[in-house]
Amino acid sequence: MDARTRSRYERLADLITGMVDKGALAPGTRLPSVRAASEQHRVSVSTVLQAYRLLEDRGVLVARPQSGFYVAAMRGGALALPSASRAKAKASTVSISSAVAALLEHASNPALVPLGCAVPDTALLKSRRLDLALARAARLHGTRHNTYGPPRGEPALCREIAKRAMRFGRALSPDDVIVTAGCTEALTLALLAVARHGDTIAVESPTYFGMLHTLEVLGLKALELPTHPVHGVDVAALARLLQAQRPAACLLSSSFGNPLGAVMAEADKRELLALLASHGVPLIEDDVYGDIHFGRERPKPFMALDGGANTIYCSSFSKTLAPGYRIGWMVPGAHAQQVLERKLAFSLCGPVLPQVALADFLANGAYDAHLRRMSRVLEDNLARMRRAIEASFPPGTRVSRPTGGFVLWLELPRHFDSRALFDLALEHGICLAPGDVFSASRRFRHCLRLSAAHAWSERIEKGVLRLGRLACGLISQ
Amino acid sequence: MDARTRSRYERLADLITGMVDKGALAPGTRLPSVRAASEQHRVSVSTVLQAYRLLEDRGVLVARPQSGFYVAAMRGGALALPSASRAKAKASTVSISSAVAALLEHASNPALVPLGCAVPDTALLKSRRLDLALARAARLHGTRHNTYGPPRGEPALCREIAKRAMRFGRALSPDDVIVTAGCTEALTLALLAVARHGDTIAVESPTYFGMLHTLEVLGLKALELPTHPVHGVDVAALARLLQAQRPAACLLSSSFGNPLGAVMAEADKRELLALLASHGVPLIEDDVYGDIHFGRERPKPFMALDGGANTIYCSSFSKTLAPGYRIGWMVPGAHAQQVLERKLAFSLCGPVLPQVALADFLANGAYDAHLRRMSRVLEDNLARMRRAIEASFPPGTRVSRPTGGFVLWLELPRHFDSRALFDLALEHGICLAPGDVFSASRRFRHCLRLSAAHAWSERIEKGVLRLGRLACGLISQ
Question: CA-CA to A455 of 20 to 30 Å: which in A63, A142, B129, B206?
Answer without folding.
Answer: A63
